[in-house]
């Protein structure tokens, strides 16, 4: 079984060991122990990547915990419907954000073109 030290995960994901310990404290990660040392397995590494991606995408730690619980436990029909609702809401939010990002990228590209054209007109751009 592949294992990792906390410092290895912290370096790989460019976060602090304290952040990893926090995720452990709130139950999102569950490393094994070797004396006082934490020993993280492949599952912990994958979950850490999912936690960080979820946070970047705007999921709360509670939402991430609920998503993880889908894979960890058998849930009731009502709980699964609730999770589908949370996922649907997040998908709608991310779709709106993606549209906003696409529009902003187009606007930035247009602004950059105008700046370059202005520089060309002023002869400053040719000297660079």
How is the secondary structure organized here?
Layout: E1 3-4, H1 6-13, H2 17-25, E2 32-34, E3 37-41, H3 42-56, H4 61-72, H5 77-121
Antiparallel strand pairs: 1-3, 2-3
Helix pairs in contact: 1-2
Domain HTH merR-type: 3-70
Protein name: MerR family DNA-binding transcriptional regulator
Keywords: DNA-binding
Can you characterise this structure?
- This is MerR family DNA-binding transcriptional regulator.
- InterPro entries: DNA-bd_dom_put_sf, MerR-type_HTH_dom, MerR_fam.
- It comes from Photobacterium angustum.
- Pfam families: MerR_1 (PF13411).
- Residues 3-70 form the HTH merR-type domain.
- Helix 1 crosses helix 2.
- Strands 1-3-2 form a three-stranded antiparallel sheet.
- The radius of gyration is 22 Å and the shape is flat.
- The protein has five helices and three strands; from the N terminus they run E-H-H-E-E-H-H-H.
- A hairpin with a 2-residue loop joins strand 2 and strand 3.
- It has helices spanning 6-13, 17-25, 42-56, 61-72, 77-121, and strands at residues 3-4, 32-34, 37-41.
- It folds into two domains: 1-57, Orthogonal Bundle (Multidrug-efflux Transporter Regulator, Chain: A, Domain 2), CATH 1.10.1660.10; 74-128.
- 9% of the residues are buried.
- By secondary structure, it is mainly alpha-helical.
């Amino acid at each position: 079984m592949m294992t990792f030290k906390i410092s290895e995960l912290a370096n790989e994901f460019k976060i602090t060991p304290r952040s990893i310990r926090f995720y452990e404290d709130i139950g999102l990660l569950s490393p094994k122990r070797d004396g006082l040392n934490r020993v993280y397995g492949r599952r912990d590494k994958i979950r850490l990547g999912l936690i960080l991606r979820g946070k970047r995408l705007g999921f709360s730690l509670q939402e991430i915990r609920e998503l993880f619980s889908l894979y960890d436990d058998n849930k009731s029909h009502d709980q699964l419907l609730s999770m589908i609702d949370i996922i649907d809401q997040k998908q709608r939010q991310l779709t709106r954000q993606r549209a906003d990002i696409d529009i902003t990228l187009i606007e930035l590209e247009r602004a950059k073109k105008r700046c370059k054209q202005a520089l060309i007109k002023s002869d400053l751009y040719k000297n660079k």
